[in-house]
Design goal:
- This protein is mainly beta and 122 residues long.
- It is built from 2 helices and 11 strands, in the order βββαββββββαββ.
- Strands 2, 4, 5, 6, 9, 10 and 11 form a 7-stranded mixed beta sheet that branches. Strands 1-3-8-7 form a 4-stranded antiparallel beta sheet.
Length: 122
């Protein structure tokens, strides 16, 4: 059974830092594009950052210069280092693992984690 387990969410003051972790099942990690998304109350889920299976990264404009996504193949884990946090970063953060049809064909998949709460407040 495939699992994505997020951790690291917390209450932090504005300007602070957090590191989120997403541990993925070994069976999928190496071939998965991994992403962090977030959903604030009353808003749609949005992309924060993603890292492809070959470690190419992309960031939402709101994350550029403040957040860094990385992956550790030995630990089957993807991280989101978040610095200079703002109140508008408050949301539930979700990890996604995906292998698109173009690479995985009929074995394509998309999996989501359960989410971890990040609250930025003084």
């Amino acid at each position: 059974q495939v699992q994505l387990v997020e951790s690291g969410g917390d209450l932090v003051q504005p300007g602070g830092s957090l590191r989120l972790s997403c541990a993925a099942s070994a069976s999928i990690f190496s071939r998965s594009d991994m992403g962090w998304y977030r959903q604030a109350p009353g808003k749609q889920r949005e992309l924060v950052a993603k890292i492809s299976s070959d470690s190419t990264t992309n960031y939402a404009d709101s994350a550029k210069g403040r957040f860094t996504i990385s992956r550790d193949k030995a630990k089957n884990t993807v991280y989101l280092q978040m610095n200079s946090l703002k109140s508008e970063d408050t949301a539930v953060y979700y990890c996604k693992a995906e292998c698109p049809f173009g690479r995985c064909g009929r074995e394509r998949y998309t999996y989501w984690g359960q989410g971890t709460q990040v609250t930025v407040s003084s």
